[in-house]
Amino acid sequence: MNFGEKVVKMSSRSWNKVLIVDDEPAIRLVVGEALRGSGYETIEAGTGAEALATLDATCPAAVLLDINLPDSYGLDLLREIKRRQPQTAVIMVTAETLFENAVSALRGGADDFIGKPINLDELHFALDQAINLKRQGREPAAISRPRALILSDSAERISQWQAAFDPQEAEITCALFPEEWNYVSRDAHDLAVVDVGPALLESLLKNLRASQEHAEIPVLVESGRTAAGSPAGLLPKYRAMPCSHDELIRLARRRITFIASHGLAKGIL
Which of 15, 58, 67, 216 is most buried (most C-beta within 10 Å)? Predict the structure, then answer.
């Protein structure tokens, strides 16, 4: 996405103004009415381009930002909003549960995230908290839990992997299909779990290791899906360890426990 270079100063900020960015007019209407009933002033945008123009013109205290917009990818738009107006709180909104973990992994950019359908009580809490922190000049607390990345080509299998890990012990980021793999690989993780068919395995591992953030982390590959169709030597080439389903869960949990207790990721298990 080619964003402009304009960066707006923050002196004219109105701390009760919220920009609602969603391509569905009905959602903007319902959310806008709810927020106005709670004393907020609302403005709306239906596209990424409109959102940036409105952001520059109005300096809102917060942006409710849908991830999927007709002309923009919401997480790219998030980065540009933060570049232009770092004091603006951004709360990501998504109907796709797989993205919630990716958004959570971006707390350094997003201030919070909520799912669709939007729970208005949850929205008010997230909005009030994010704006109050910004007014005090504070940022959301840094996440210190180990960060595990799960990459798969099956939403059903990702759900199974998620259930295998305790979200209180590790921050789990999940991504489905190459478009999401490429995005989440930009952020640092301590461990990667790979569960894809042989046709996709090499390109995934190549992209993962090409990322500076993931060049040396442990990569565990679910061997049950790749054993028959993967080229010989592929996993050693990318320093990936084949594991059965049960072995993978056991090793990943051990790794998470080690990282949590030592505060440091190592290159081997």
Answer: 67
Beta strands in the chain (DSSP E): 14-21, 41-45, 60-66, 89-94, 112-115, 147-152, 171-176, 191-195, 219-222, 240-243
pTM of the full structure: 0.52
With residue 233 as reference, give the H or E element that holds it. none
Q: Give the chain's domains with CATH numbers.
A: 14-135 (3.40.50.2300), 147-262 (3.40.50.2300)
More confident position, 96 or 82: 82
Measured CA to CA, the distance from residue 60 to residue 199 in angstroms comes to: 46
- Name the one residue in this structure whose structure tokens are 């295998």: 164
Nearest C-alpha neighbor of 196 from the set 206, 188, 186, 187: 206
Q: Reduce the DSSP state of residue 198 to 3 states and report it.
A: helix
When mean pLDDT is compared over 5-9, 40-44, 85-89, 117-121, the highest value belongs to 40-44
Phi-psi region of 225 (alpha: psi -120 to 50; beta: other; left: phi over 0): alpha
- DSSP string for residues in 34-89: HHHHTT-EEEEESSHHHHHHHHHHH-EEEEEEESB-SS-BHHHHHHHHHHH-TTSE
pLDDT digits (tens, 9 = 90+) for 3-44: 343 334 434 557 889 999 999 999 999 999 999 999 999 999
Query: In this structure, are residues 26 and 74 in contact, taking their beta carbons and an 8 Å threshold?
Result: no
Interacting residues of 254 by C-beta distance below 8 A, sequence separation 6+: 269
Q: Which residue has the tokens 């205290």?
A: 61
